[in-house]
Amino acid sequence: MKKIGCLNSELSYVIAKLGHFDTLTIGDCGLPVPKGVQRIDLAVTYGVPSFESVFNVVDAEAKFQKVTIATEAKEQNPQFYQMITSWAKERGVEVVQTPHDTLKELSAKSVAVVRTGECHPWCNVILESNVSF
Q1: Helices marked H in 1-133 — which ranges?
Q2: Rounded-to-integer distance, Cα 105 and Cα 102, Å
Q3: Could you tell me which residues come within 8 angstroms of residue 92 by beta carbon, excluding any fewer than 6 positions away?
Q4: What's the pLDDT tens digit per position in 48-90?
Q5: Contact between 107 and 126 (Cβ < 8 Å)
Q6: Chain-centroid distance, C-alpha 21
Q7: 20-26 mean pLDDT
Q8: Among 44, 58, 52, which Cα is nearest to 112's?
Q9: Which residues, including other chains, have CB under 8 Å from residue 105's CB and lie 6 or more apart?
Q10: Does residue 64 contact residue 130 with C-beta atoms inside 8 Å?
Q11: What is the DSSP letter of 21?
Q12: Which of 20, 89, 91, 109 is the catalytic position?
């Protein structure tokens, strides 16, 4: 049994399989999951687990080169926007902003969509993996 890191077997497996340029979407409990994309449903109840707690586990397990967020997040959820842009700046990760509808369309290309229990609006990202060397 794993002692540390991501303990969810589905999520751990998807992270381990990420190749360069693969994308992984992490979303709030309302983000629709496109047909044909693996759903990793971690939501237990509203707020559990939070977007931030899941994001931090994924961040600790993989390296990313780009994050896509909804343009609307800057106005509608400035705390989330600040968290993501600060994280990206610290790690040299490119930030791409796109309308929320486009973000939902782009999530169809992800290897999986991780559904959290987050219930604050616009807490959705698409992470593009990088190489770790």
Answers
A1: 9-17, 51-61, 73-76, 78-91, 100-106
A2: 5
A3: none
A4: 999 999 999 999 999 999 999 999 999 999 999 999 999 999 9
A5: yes
A6: 14
A7: 98
A8: 58
A9: none
A10: yes
A11: T
A12: 20
Examine the residue annotation and report whether 100 is marked as an active-site residue of this protein: no
Instruction: Report the distance separating Cα 30 and Cα 74, nearest Å.
Output: 18
pLDDT band for 30, please (50, 70, 90 cuts).
Answer: very high
Percent of the chain whose predicted confidence (pLDDT) is above 70: 100
Q: Coil, strand, or helix at residue 129?
A: strand
**What average pLDDT does this structure show over 116-129?**
97
53-57 contacts, C-beta under 8 A, 24 or more apart: 53/116, 54/26, 54/114, 54/116, 55/26, 55/125, 57/5, 57/6, 57/11
Q: Which pair of tokens denotes residue 121? A: 């609006």
Any bridge partners for residue 129, and if so which? Answer: 64
pTM above 0.85, yes or no: yes
Q: What is the DSSP letter of 32?
A: P
The yes-or-no verdict on residue 128 having pLDDT over 90 is yes
